[in-house]
Design brief:
Elements lengths: L7 H15 L1 E9 L3 E11 L5 E6 L7 E4 L3 E7 L3 E6 L4 E7 L2 H80 L2
Antiparallel strand pairs: 1-2, 1-7, 2-3, 3-4, 5-6, 6-7
Helix pairs in contact: 1-2
């Protein structure tokens, strides 16, 4: 008969993700002011939840840096060992050189699997949260408008009452004289 596939591809994806969570050594290329390029040894790995890339400089303890997966727009393999992560707008987020082609290819394949479906979900979530924030802001603006409007109307009413009091006393005098003269 033939091969029977029962979702084995999903277990392969998970196995590759586990390898990324263990991490690998890379050389991180960086440019200072776009002119002076330098490279430093870093240990790159995927965080346990699979949502961020974390790296730290390898000789000695240092603070780690992170890059959320949803910010990655494209993963490019350059040359034999280079790996470049580009942002949504095309800017270079991270430029790495792997120790071997196998390591580089593993990272490219797995990051593409993580980024492509996740971006749609993330962009939908971002759109929903942005829409909710906008609605809240509009509600606050409406509330503030009506509060200001009612204060203004109340002030106008008080001013009108003040004018009526001033004119009311004087007006009665002239009304009484007009009635007497009839």
């Amino acid at each position: 008969m033939g091969n029977v596939c029962c979702g084995g591809g999903n277990s392969e994806v998970l196995a590759r993700q586990e390898l990324l969570k263990e991490g690998n050594d890379f050389k991180k290329k960086s440019a200072f002011l776009g002119v002076l390029s330098r490279s430093e040894n870093v240990y790159l790995q995927l965080n346990p939840s699979g949502t961020r890339l974390m790296w730290r400089q390898t000789p000695g303890p240092s603070s780690s840096e992170e890059l959320p997966i949803y910010r990655v727009g494209k993963i490019c393999s350059m040359g034999r060992l280079d790996l470049v992560l580009l942002g949504q707008n095309g800017q270079k987020l991270l430029e790495l050189t792997a120790g071997t082609m196998d390591v580089r290819d593993l990272w490219v394949q797995t990051l593409e699997e993580l980024c492509l479906p996740g971006q749609e979900n993330q962009s939908e979530e971002d759109a929903k949260s942005l829409k909710e924030k906008m609605e809240k802001q509009q509600d606050k603006q409406k509330e503030q408008y009506w509060k200001d409007r009612t204060e203004e109307l109340e002030k106008r009413r008080r001013d009108a009452e003040e004018r009526k009091k001033k004119i009311g006393v004087i007006g009665m005098k002239y009304t009484a004289q007009a009635m007497v003269n009839r």
